[in-house]
Description:
The protein is an all-alpha fold. Helices cover 93% and strands 0% of the residues.
Amino acid sequence: MKRDRIVVENTIEIMMEIEQKLKQLAKKHKIPEELLKEAIALEKERIMYANRQCVPKLLKAIARYAE
């Protein structure tokens, strides 16, 4: 349970950092707001997908080495 919460908290922090960077780049390069929102949504999906793939593998490795 605690591991899952840590993963979620880390994911949220990463997404917030990415969102801030995207906003800075959009402002700097005068990119439309709608395009920025689409980019943020795609990046969030990519991160969540990667975490869903990695977490079960990590849990198996931890369980294997904890025995």
